[in-house]
Amino acid sequence: MPSARLLLPACLALAPLAVAATPVDYQFDPVHTQVVFNVDHNGFSRAFGRLKVREGTLRFDPDDWSKSSVQATIDLTSLDMGDAAWNKAVSASAFLDTAHGDTARYVSDAVEKRGADEGVVHGHFTLRGVTVPLDIPFRVNRIGRTIYGLHTVAGFSSSLTLDRTAFGMTSNRNSVGTTVTVWLEVEAIRGGEAPSSSKDTHDAPAQ
Fold first, then answer.
1. Which residue in 126, 115, 123, 113 sits closest to 167, CA to CA?
2. What is the SS3 assignment for 195?
3. Of 33, 89, 92, 168, which residue is most buried, by most CB within 10 angstroms?
4. What is the reported pLDDT for 15?
5. By the 8 A CB rule, do 178 and 165 touch?
6. So what's the pLDDT on residue 197?
């Protein structure tokens, strides 16, 4: 029978294998994922808009970010500028041109870790039929169960700028800025768990 002196090193050698993390798949939560942008309006102010993510998935490995990935489809018809006339103008052919394509899509090529909770996604973004390389810096906010134990969630934040002319939106330069600032607030639910709904917060027990 093996002695304790022989068993101990063997157990220690196997221990890292037992706790090694693996990539986890998540589905974007459309209720708690926001795409907010703004652009200069004739130098007077910055106009704000919001878009929804139609669907998306991400894979995240907390121990090896290089094994992570993301893909997301943005619903351009969900545009909300806070005014019906603004929505119509921005959805028209001069800008988003939703009549010829109602989605935009991002697909990652690689994920790079640059700090304890910060990284960059390298990938490609397609809008109006034009695909350009796009790096998205991001911060990992939190990964864990929600306060009421409804879901296992991964939360991320990001901000970046886009040049709208790179996607063929070259009109109205005198009145609408060409640099668009974008903020991303993402919550993704671990695969296999039910998606979130607007009732989750309302039905949660009072504290």
1. 126
2. coil
3. 33
4. 44
5. yes
6. 61
CA dist 132 and 194 (Å) reads: 34
How many domains, in total, are found in the chain? 1
What Cα–Cα distance (Å) separates residue 170 from each residue in 24, 42, 98, 110, 165? Answer: 41, 15, 16, 30, 5
Q: H or E stretch including 14?
A: helix 4-19
Does residue 152 form part of some domain? yes
pLDDT of amino acid 184? 98
Q: What is the CATH number of the domain that holds 114?
A: 2.40.128.110
Q: Which domain holds residue 52?
A: 23-191
**Nearest alpha carbon to residue 162 among 135, 138, 185:** 135
Q: Is residue 53 exposed (0-12), middle (13-18) or buried (19+ Cβ within 10 Å)?
A: buried
